[in-house]
Design brief:
The complex is a heterodimer. Chain A is built from 26 helices and 2 strands. Chain A is mainly α. Chain A folds into 2 domains: about 240 residues, MetI-like (MetI-like fold, Orthogonal Bundle), CATH 1.10.3720.10; about 210 residues, MetI-like (MetI-like fold, Orthogonal Bundle), CATH 1.10.3720. In chain A, strands 1-2 form a two-stranded antiparallel sheet. Chain A is globular. Chain B folds into 3 domains: about 230 residues, Rossmann fold, CATH 3.40.50.300; about 60 residues, no CATH class; about 50 residues, Beta Barrel (OB fold (Dihydrolipoamide Acetyltransferase, E2P)), CATH 2.40.50.140. Chain B is built from 8 helices and 21 strands. Chain B is about 25% helix and about 35% strand. The termini of chain B are far apart. In chain B, strands 6-7-8-3-9-10 form a 6-stranded mixed sheet, with helices on both faces. Chain B has a 6-stranded antiparallel sheet with strand order 13-12-11-14-20-21. Chain B is α+β, with helices and mostly antiparallel strands. In chain B, α2 crosses α3. Classes of the chains: A mainly alpha, B alpha+beta. At the A-B interface, α10 and α11 of A face β6, α2 and α4 of B. The complex binds adenosine-5'-diphosphate (ADP) and magnesium ion. Adenosine-5'-diphosphate binds next to α1 of chain B.
Amino acid sequence: MRQTILRRLTRPVTVLTGLVLAVLGILVAAPLVSLVSATIPADGDFAGSSWPDVVTSPMAVNLFWTPLQNSLLVALGTAVLSTVLGAFLAWVVVLSDAPGRKIIAVLATIPFALPSFAIALAWSSVFRNGRVGGSPGILAGMGVEVPDWLAWGALPVTLALVAHYFSLSFIIIAAALAGLGGDLLAAAELTGASKLRVAASIAIPAVSPALLSSFLLAFAEGVSNFASPALLGLPVRFQTLSTRLYGSISTGNVERGYVLAILLVIVAAAVLYVGNRVTAGRSFAVITGKATRPRTVRLGAAAWPVFTLASGLVAATTILPLAVLALTTFSRRSHRFDDGFTLHYWVGESDPGVSHGMAGVFRNDRLMDATGTTIAYGLAVAAGAVVLGMLAAYAVRRSGSTAVIGSISFLSYVPFLIPGIALGAAFIALFGSASSPLPNLYGTFWILVLAGIAASVPYAFQTSKSALGQVSGELEEAAVVVGAGTGRRITRILLPLSARGVTGGAMLVFVTTVRDLSLVVLLVTPATPLLAVETFRYAEEGFTQHANAITLIIAAVSVTATLLARRLQGADQPWNR
Amino acid sequence: MTETTTPDVGRGASITVDRLVKSFGDQRAVNEVSMDLPAGALLVLLGPSGCGKTTTLRMIAGLEDPSGGRIRFGDKTMADGDSGAAVPAEKRGIGMVFQSYALWPHMTVRANVEWPLKVAGWGTAERRRRSAEVLGMLGIDHLAERYPGQLSGGQQQRVAIARTVAPRPQVLLFDEPLSNLDARLRVDTRAELVEVHRRSGATSVYVTHDQIEALAMATHIAVLKEGRLEQFGTPDELLENPQTAFVAEFLGSPAAVLIEGTVASGELMHEGIALAAAVPLPDGETLSAMYRPEAISLAEQDGTGVDITVLESTPSAGRFVVTVRRGAKRIAVVSETRYPVGARLRLVLPEEPAALFDAEGRRWDHLA
Ligand SMILES: Nc1ncnc2c1ncn2[C@@H]1O[C@H](COP(=O)(O)OP(=O)(O)O)[C@@H](O)[C@H]1O
Ligand SMILES: [Mg+2]
């Protein structure tokens, strides 16, 4: 009896499962537990803790309720507009015969590959007014009076988020529309129903799960995004939950920050969780048979207006902001072009007369240092997340226990519900406080890597699962039959066969990691500079050209790697076939 | 299923297809196809995969515009590929069953059937009555409140048919509607489809690559090959009087046997055996002689005949379909006895072949 238990414990799959659960426990469960326990007073008396400060005290309005209201407002605007614009573009690309559909389809996927602060910085470069000092934007430089509501606060924060997330909505809705199959719509057209009626009664309801899930994703992202409100709201004290959380921790009110982090997690997770539940049973999988490509709707005279609208939209969120960023980095003064152009901000030596003597980005030791750290950070996270994702996916595939499968799947999913900045706070609670049982890693490279892996686990796990899923169980069983052990099966059968999907997944983890600001903004210290955070600091301090130049570098890396990764994964988009 | 509810009989339209062409780029998917289909007929478009059946059907439906030629329903022109004029699909009075069924996944079975009626402006009570009637006719009235995702393939198929016939279209179109069903269900549903066609009174066009299905259902068959019409006619005409070697070998179970010979001094010879006499062609020309499988017999002993090897014997209606190998070619004949696999036998051919085909596969006639 004892022997069989021992044998079971040492079976490779059991060992692997235990290992995966332990790592997920440390990376996912432990930070959350520390975050919560750090806000629970030792004597159990909540009256003296930070909870009443944040929720009920006189300053709670400022600290929590107003930011909550702002967050929800921004999120609602982001969700509605992203879904409407994403659906419109998806319709143009998949179902209409508008000219230029191919190009629109490519451009519409790019904003999501850009760092979310790129659009915010571009907005600020154009619309910034004199309200908070510093050099104004291009419009102000041309003598245009830019009203505050256009320069700062809810509207620009929301629009900058929409410019980023409509792209995600587009991807989700276009895939759903393309998956419907042309026959479904042809069958409706044959009844004699008008185009509008077919759209309203058939196409939209049939993709309603995609519409809903795009709405909720955009909503949750809108609640949790940090970069956009930090750059366009914070300077005028337009606070959201995430900027409040950042403010509390960076000014030393750590416990309040933790409380805000917990509340932020609750709001975001509730939205995403409800979304998952609502859409789970309602995915209208395309039934049987081969789907035909949808017949395109003839737009006739409306073709050019539709084209103008769609291409204007994608140009305004891709080419235009990148062009603005580029232009400012080449002009001597960020807001006006009559002072001449210069390469100073890219390659110039330090000159006390310009930008307080800061050298161009390619001559700047601190930035070169940050570049090195960022790349090392991205690579370490990509490697770690993919290895963990693969092992977790493999454990789920081979384990017979529903409890094990359930726990691994759950722990791998949880970080998806947690806004980056709140996850950062939780890592401080676990690895950066004296009361934690784990070693203090705050200020080291490793806390960044561990947090990055935790944040990327949901994606890495899903990708690995689907990559492994494409290798049929029989291929592996054939190797079992000839006596190949677990390690050998993984390295000789599974890995080679799923390599493309996994490599593509690793590249996407790399880009999402290096361009992300919210997770790391609380975790970096001068010893571990990262490009995304440097950009943010420069922007805060008014070094517009430097911030924009670094953003362009990150954007170039992001977009290239995203396109490459999509190609590697064979995600030849379904609507392009 | 009551007899009072068959007012639709006789609503079909005749269909005329005149030198129909469809090009995709420089490939001609459908090439100069012409046929005349009487009202109420059931036409089967038959041919191997990729021969242009779906494309032809979709042009008849109006889902695809012809590159050339004309389609008429009765005396009304539906599409003119030369002028580009076309009646839109929804104005043609057609109903179509898609290969993928194309059921609307967010609507119940009843809603799937009723929505087209609603679009056509039927009243609520009328809609309800008609949907109950067609669902009853197809034996799926108990599924009315289910969603398509909760049905088996065969049930989905019936819903698709019910939805198509409910508005009483003049023309019914089917694109390989049985190809996603298992063998048993295919045979059952086939008979039901013929019944649906008969009761609706519509003119039907039915696409399949299965010649058995075609022979079982059709009043007319059009055999297509690489976009061209090989032959159009009734099943009997095609079986009795195939106009091309392709049709002869494609239709029938088992299909006709073709044996190639060379003309020598006015006789068609195959390895020293005379296939046909009095062939007025120069020496060296090749022709194929067609024989009906039931007219050929197998002989064990030496004698005149063509050497063959037995591959398999399948019992069929008290007799046996014996498949034999002749060089690289497989031939099926009907025999009274079973032969063991590997037996070396001879084919005994009748005096005269049932037909001759030239080297291009066209029918060749002595007198012509
Ligand atoms: N939309 C299309 N674009 C280009 N080629 C097509 C298209 N539809 C069909 N074809 C080609 O036309 C030929 C006939 O196709 P189809 O009518 O679908 O054949 P079948 O239904 O007989 O299998 C095929 O070679 C196919 O590849
Ligand atoms: Mg077809």
